Amino acid sequence: MEDHKKRLNKFLSESGYCSRREADRLIDEGRVTVNGLVPEMGTKVSTEDEICVDGELIKPKTEAFTYLAFNKPIGIECTTNQEVKYNIVDYINYHERIFPIGRLDKDSEGLILMTNDGDIVNKILRGSNNHEKEYIVTVNKPITDRFIEGMRNGVPILDTITKKCRVEQISKNIFRIFLTQGLNRQIRRMCEYFDYEVSHLKRVKVLNIGLDVPVGKYRNLTAAEMKELNTILEHSEKHIVEQGPQLPQAKRNFPREKQSQRQARVPRNERRENATNDKSRELDRKPMAERPLRNERRNPRK
Q: How many angstroms separate the Cα of 232 from the Cα of each of 132, 185, 237?
């Protein structure tokens, strides 16, 4: 019987319920049960077990998987959380459960693949597999050779350095970029590092799949596209590693002061003035991935 068992996250992904990464999150949050009990991470299950997510019975998938190419409009969020307004699942309103492969931020448009094949997700997303995604980007001022060269050679954002990538200038304010990573709002943050703001961002290709449907529409991938895609993914690894090389941590050569010691050195009237800056301090304490870009601080998104 042990030979027929598989890890719980693999069972959920193969059932078409979600990707393995999402399955791990659900298991960690205690939302998955096996025969009425909350399992540990790494638990193995068989078809004889009763697996539920939030009380919903999950059965092994017997039909063929679905693969869609969708042209996401600006304003739609790539989340399966249907409590989020304008989520991608409700927008497409497909007749069976599907989920996005990766993400495309709310302010961007273009190609995103949708599926119920959880195993294919990690193969496509893992950065070390070097699977390219192509974007057309418009920025707020003329592009320089220094900007193009800097974008190509890796940019320090989110406590890491982006991988080297291909960048081609198309016109005065428009360039094409090919990424193998999917860091949080990566292109926007890379541009901001060089004091550019992205005014329009569109993804036009993922691996061998090109964007060829109108905004807001989708189509099924063809047999030829799936054959080529499976050939590309044949030797791909499944575990996700999104980050590039880590920036070294600065070493402290002096003891950390206690708060009371710092306050003692600051005059009382200055302490009062400093208290007005609480809002900016709260921003600085947020993790890098949650901080808004500079232009968003000036013009908050609705």
A: 11, 26, 11
